[in-house]
Amino acid sequence: MYKLLKTCGRAKRGEFHTPHGVIQTPVFMNVGTIAAIKGALSTEDLERVKCQVELSNTYHLHVRPGDEIIKKLGGLHKFMVWDKPILTDSGGFQVFSLTTLRKITEEGVYFSSHVDGRKIFMGPEESMRIQSNLGSTIAMAFDECIGIPAERTYVENSVARTTRWLERCKKEMARLNSLDDTINKQQMLFGINQGATYEDIRIEHAKRIAEMDLDGYAIGGLAVGESHAEMYHIIEEVVPYLPQNKPTYLMGVGTPENILEAVERGVDFFDCVLPSRNGRHAHVYTNAGKLNLMNAKYELDERPIDETCTCPACSRYSRAYIRHLFKAKEMLAMRLCVLHNLHFFNTMMEEIRQAMDEDRFPQYKKEKLEGFRRNGM
User: Fold this and answer.
1) Fewest Cβ atoms closer than 10 Å to its Cβ: which of 14, 62, 224, 297?
2) Burial 224-242 (b: 16+ CB within 10 A, else e)
């Protein structure tokens, strides 16, 4: 259940009550694709960096170790020792992005595993069964993520099929949640809005899926090649047609600037691999801009990554030390920077929520963006 606490223009401040706890929104979900955050972080680390929701991927866990194995081990929460909410992506994006050989039909998609090449079929029912085996808090509907640019006729046909797939997802989840051996009988379902950059297709699709009374709604198929201006425009056009009393999730986004702009336009949920991916390559986020710790100017820098930060890395270690670790190819370097970056993103979301509670979000956004731009983030 989503409880809207207050609004500031289109920006929403809410609470999302789930079987695994209450999520304070807006929220950034920390991406652990294969039930682990890349960079050697444990679930204890996630708690330390203020993670509210962990995100794992249906396709990857189906391929390895196998969703049936995870079910036998008690589900994803028990498997990775995490008792807070987990969202599982449906696998749709990976099916369409990781494979070169695939065949899309009304039933679903035939494709080859990126691990061992074996043939796999995945459709709405299969995706729901895998996610039910995982026992995640929130399951995402199976959809087609359309590349941009795309021909209008293709987009229209794809969106219509995605709508039919969503109906099948909802029906199958209801069936699975009624079974005696289902791990999470209260598993929630989010539908996904598609339509590339055609605003009229997006709007009509938003209207159609809003009628289905789902637990939440995502905007998919963005941050896949379009400009930031195009992305913001689509969000502005689509959000008014999605239920305000349900969470809105912008998939795969993004940078701190993207998040601030999307919150202002009514988005509640975010996820992105950027903080962990950049951290593994010595790129760290700070309130004074983004730093590359491999730069020679940090060789004798005894300051922490960010002097305003209280994360485990900044509490003890210097830029000079972390730079040395990267130069020495020591795993600890990646771990410290990923810890810092996730703490930075989660703290920013905490600040956004506090600013909204105190009716000063526009001022907060303006000051935060000015700081980023002044220092080249």
Assistant:
1) 297
2) bebeeeebbebbbbbbebb
Beta partners for residue 31, in sequence order = 55
Question: Please, is 104 exposed, middle or buried when counting C-beta atoms within 10 Å of its C-beta (0-12, 13-18, 19+)?
Answer: middle
CB 224 within 8 A of CB 195: no
271 is catalytic: yes
For residues 226 and 370, state if they share a domain: no
Is residue 32 a contact partner of residue 55, using CB atoms and an 8 Å limit? yes
180 is catalytic: no
CA 56 to chain CA mean position, Å: 9
Number of domains in the chain: 2
Q: Sign of dihedral through CA atoms 164, 166, 170, 172?
A: positive
Q: What is the pLDDT of residues 246-263, one digit of tens each?
A: 999 999 998 999 999 999
Distance CA 231, CA 270 (A): 14
CB 301 within 8 A of CB 325: no
Structure tokens given for 190: 């989010």
Domain with residue 54: its CATH number is: 3.20.20.105
pLDDT at 377 > cutoff 60 = no
Q: Which residues are annotated as a binding site for substrate?
A: 89-93, 143, 194, 221
pLDDT band at 238 (very low <50, low <70, confident <90, very high): very high
Name the one residue in this structure whose structure tokens are 């809005």. 193
Domain that holds residue 132: 2-272
- CA–CA separation, 190 and 217 (whole Å): 5
Contact between residue 165 and residue 174 where contact means Cβ atoms under 8 Å apart: no
